[in-house]
């Protein structure tokens, strides 16, 4: 005969053992990943450290970097960080407004409005971003429209991202259930009130995390506007000093490090935001 | 006194499928009318035609003297539809509370946005109606933090806050766990006692019997029988009504006496 108490403790301790094993396995994996990251980072630094290695009769030297050049030019390059963030923030704001309008327009039963929205999305998604940027900087002045560099950049990036992001907002709008619309109409709201008070707020909530992702992508795509030579952001500054003194390697590495750090920082906030949004309906 | 709701010869098609066939009925002031019938009998569709969440195909609907002719496009008579929606309160099977608003804000939303009431006055109205359904103690919670039965009670308060002439209930307890049905039915019974005019689509036979003063039976899109609960439950005439109520009667007799 079995003793109920004894089997219960045995079962419990077994569950504990399995649970602890799983926790240990997870932790071991995370530590492994962290160590590997560190090793790769160290290797990368080593690759650019101009260290001499002697292997038998051969002597190698890793890539030499002129640290004096970096030290001298880092303030000039770094001052582009704020331009990069600024142009990205303005562009994402413009893109968000456009995307919301385009997504709402696609709900319209009025053919010209629906057509305008699909036309816009199709045109923008059917042409390269690089081409669009040059269009605003170089092609528009030919017909007499000359925009300040920053605004041309914001316009190009915003229009482009707005087209892609309209899909995000469309998904957000369709994530709001039919029941929500019916409840709004049943208490006497007009379709406009229903959209403004009930549907759009819920759709925006749905769209906030993916919009954060778009902002991070925008930080890097904003480098494209440097090609026009009018916006003095991170990439423009790096290529300017790099070309002038033939130190492209150092300049580009410096810019790359800045971009990478910015991405890491914003990704951290992004994942926290996402976790917070996922926790509850609110 | 004129009826609050008068439906005459209403037809509704979904594509080629006719889901309502020549339905006529009246709901008078302070009536509590329950609509029963099998799933798919057209009960919910009938209810949803009254405030035009579904567009009826043919017939006539009159709510509080406002007459709407089906078959005319909803667009052409949207002012009339709006006026009817202001006179009807609706409670849904799935509650449909607004998840981005607190319980209090849910109930205030109608008075503030639709009626243009100032916030302080709307807050008073909302609190009074939450008190009425026993949900004032959760006024600052968000919908995802309260139970299904509590959500439905808040939804009832939200509809009541607009002071409708008639309350439409679309299977208000069908999405609830069995142990939560009672609290919602209790609220509905108290509304009935207070003289609220109600049209209730339900599968709760016990409720229909206790609270209604008239019961309507629907079968395959047709209104097949109506009468007082006593008439209908004890002496059903239509064979389909008899079949529908058979399960209720056998279910009840096999239950232990409490």
Question: What labels describe this entry?
Answer:
heterodimer; A: mainly alpha; 10 helices; flat; B: alpha/beta
Protein described:
The complex is a heterodimer of chains A (282) and B (258). Chain A has 282 residues and is mainly α. Chain A contains ten helices and two strands; from the N terminus they run αββααααααααα. In chain A, α2 (67-78) crosses α10 (248-279). The two termini of chain A are 54 Å apart. The model of chain A has no long low-confidence stretch (mean pLDDT 88). Chain B has nine helices and ten strands. Chain B has helices spanning 43-50, 78-87, 103-114, 119-132, 148-160, 178-193, 205-211, 229-234, 239-254, and strands at 5-14, 17-27, 32-36, 58-63, 66-69, 88-91, 166-170, 198-201, 214-219, 222-227. In chain B, a hairpin with a 2-residue loop joins β1 and β2. In chain B, 48% of the residues are buried. Chains A and B meet through α7 and α8 of A and α2, β6, α3 and α5 of B.
Rough shape of chain B? globular
Q: What would you call the structural class of chain A?
A: mainly alpha
- Characterize the main sheet of chain B: 6 strands, mixed
User: Greatest contact pair?
Assistant: A-B, 21 and 26 residues
């Amino acid at each position: 005969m079995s003793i109920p108490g004894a089997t219960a403790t045995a079962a419990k301790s077994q569950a504990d053992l399995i649970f602890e094993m799983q926790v240990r396995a997870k932790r071991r994996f995370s530590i492994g990943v962290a160590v590997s990251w560190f090793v790769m980072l160290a290797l990368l630094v080593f690759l650019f450290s101009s260290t001499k290695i002697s292997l038998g009769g051969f002597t190698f030297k890793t890539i030499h970097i002129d640290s004096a050049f970096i030290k001298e030019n880092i303030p000039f390059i770094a001052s582009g960080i704020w331009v990069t963030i600024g142009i990205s923030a303005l562009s994402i704001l413009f893109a968000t407004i456009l995307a919301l309008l385009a997504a709402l327009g696609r709900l319209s039963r009025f053919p010209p409005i629906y057509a305008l929205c699909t036309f816009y999305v199709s045109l923008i998604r059917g042409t390269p971003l690089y081409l669009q940027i040059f269009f605003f900087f170089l092609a528009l002045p030919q017909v007499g429209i000359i925009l300040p560099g920053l605004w041309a950049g914001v316009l190009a990036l915003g229009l482009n991202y707005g087209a892609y992001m309209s899909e995000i907002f469309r998904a957000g709008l369709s994530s709001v259930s039919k029941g929500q619309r019916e409840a709004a109409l049943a208490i006497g709201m007009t379709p406009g009130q229903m959209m403004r008070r009930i549907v759009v707020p819920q759709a925006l909530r749905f769209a906030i995390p993916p919009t954060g992702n778009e902002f991070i992508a925008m930080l890097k795509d904003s480098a494209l506007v440097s090609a026009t030579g009018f916006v003095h952001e991170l990439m423009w500054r790096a290529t300017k000093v790099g070309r002038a003194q033939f130190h492209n390697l150092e300049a580009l590495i410096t810019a790359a490090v800045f971009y990478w750090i910015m991405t890491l920082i914003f990704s951290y906030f992004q994942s926290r935001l996402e976790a917070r949004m996922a926790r509850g309906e609110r | 006194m004129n009826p609050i709701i008068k439906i005459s010869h209403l037809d509704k098609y979904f594509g080629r499928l006719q889901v309502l066939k020549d339905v006529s009925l009246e709901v008078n002031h302070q009536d509590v009318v329950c609509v029963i019938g099998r799933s798919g009998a057209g009960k919910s569709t009938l209810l949803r035609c009254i405030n035009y969440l579904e567009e009826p195909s043919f017939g006539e609907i009159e709510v509080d003297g406002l007459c709407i002719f089906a078959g005319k496009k909803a667009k052409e008579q949207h002012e009339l539809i709006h006026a009817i929606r202001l006179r009807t309160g609706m409670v849904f099977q799935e509650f449909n509370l607004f998840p981005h608003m607190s319980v209090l804000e849910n109930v205030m939303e109608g008075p503030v946005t639709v009626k243009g009431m100032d916030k302080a006055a709307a807050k008073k109205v909302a609190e009074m109606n939450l008190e009425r359904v026993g949900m004032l103690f959760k006024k600052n919670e968000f919908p995802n933090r309260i139970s299904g039965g509590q959500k439905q009670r808040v939804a009832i308060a939200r509809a009541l806050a607009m002071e409708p002439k008639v309350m439409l209930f679309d299977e208000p307890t069908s999405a609830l766990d069995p142990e939560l049905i009672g609290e919602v039915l209790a609220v509905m019974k108290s509304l009935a006692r207070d003289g609220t005019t109600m049209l209730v689509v339900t599968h709760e036979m016990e409720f229909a019997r206790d609270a209604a003063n008239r019961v309507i039976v629907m079968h395959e899109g047709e209104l097949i029988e109506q009468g007082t609960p006593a008439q209908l439950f004890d002496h059903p005439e239509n064979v389909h009504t008899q079949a529908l109520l058979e399960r209720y009667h056998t279910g009840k007799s096999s239950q232990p006496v409490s």
